[in-house]
């Protein structure tokens, strides 16, 4: 298969490109390198089945492909709020462009949607049938509402133009290749702990999230894309729920850090609880995550130890060059 991965130089995208190549597919990675980096895909450049195109999906592009994974969009609250209008454009105009391409070349398209479509949920755990509780005018809306419109577009292209679609609602996923300054909770806590700096818990820390290890999530996405006659939406995530304070303590223990926990203000509209009901994924995709949080954190910590060493060495080299 010839497969397009938009956002392929990002955290999830780079793992997906790698896995697809291992399976023998040809992969075209399209990315504007806003939050992604060439370093994430440097191991793939020598592979004749891999191509990288630096391109922003807000502008049309036509590629002859069989499958499209549409992942291009910043995912960390700090990054997607940095240029909120651009985030809306990536989700609305960008998704429309990808759907236009899917229609033209008759490709199957999978949209990386999110648990954020449920907003600050009143129903717990969240099932796909829940319509959500989303603030349309808050600081998270560019992402939440952007992703909701992207789902709407997917459904309308399917109903009007018979485009073959898949909608995956991804819950908090973590692992190697998150960037050092990504801003999401797992990478923040690990980097802070490894530097023995204060661990910043926002609010009381009693808000919950459910953390899925990247390898499990990629399995789920690939299974879903392969699945005939089921277009979702389907939740993909790990249903084990933790408070943010529990996560902070776990990271301190696993890193053996001297860091202490400090409180910072809770950002506006921060969801109080989040946990996927994955019955549908279990039934339709025969998928469930298998990596417990402790195990996934250990692998992620090992990655960040290495990344921090490289970062320090690079900074020292740059200082020496400057004299
Ligand atoms: P990421 O920020 O690491 O990756 C996003 C990638 O998209 C980056 O490489 C970035 O440069 C690229 N990009 C952004 N805007 C673009 C544009 N206009 N044109 C081309 N490329 C663009 O984030 P991630 O965690 O890998 O997330 C990937 C996708 O999965 C996103 O769509 C995100 O919304 C979705 N998702 C992720 C999670 C998670 O926990 N990781 C949860 C829910 C949904
Ligand atoms: N959070 C925190 N400290 C940080 C970063 C995040 O306490 O340094 C909290 C944040 O307020 C939220 C949770 O961790 O309640 C998850 O945040 P993240 O940005 O990873 O993703 P979200 O699920 O909110 O999109």
Can you walk me through this structure?
The protein has 323 residues and is of the alpha/beta class. The chain has a domain at 2-171 and 214-239 and 273-290: Rossmann fold (3-Layer(aba) Sandwich), CATH 3.40.50. The chain has helices at residues 11-22, 38-41, 77-82, 84-105, 141-161, 185-194, 214-226, 244-255, 279-285, 293-322, and strands spanning 2-6, 26-31, 50-54, 67-70, 108-114, 165-170, 173-174, 199-202, 208-210, 212-213, 234-236, 241-243, 261-264. The strands form four sheets. Strands 3-2-1-4-5-6-11 form a seven-stranded parallel beta sheet, sandwiched between helices. A two-stranded parallel ribbon has the order 7-10. A two-stranded parallel ribbon has the order 8-13. Helix 1 (11-22) packs across helix 7. The protein starts with a strand and ends with a helix. It binds nicotinamide-adenine-dinucleotide and uridine-5'-diphosphate (UDP).
The CATH homologous superfamily of the domain at 2-171 and 214-239 and 273-290 is named NAD(P)-binding Rossmann-like Domain
Helix content: 40-55%
- Principal-axes geometry comes out as globular
Structural class: alpha/beta
List keywords for this structure.
323 residues, Rossmann fold, two-stranded parallel ribbon, 10 helices, 13 strands, 42% helix, binds nicotinamide-adenine-dinucleotide, binds uridine-5'-diphosphate
Describe the structure concisely.
This protein has 323 residues and is α/β, with parallel strands linked by helices. It contains ten helices and 13 strands. The strands form four sheets. The protein has a seven-stranded parallel beta sheet with strand order 3-2-1-4-5-6-11, sandwiched between helices. A two-stranded parallel sheet has the order 7-10.
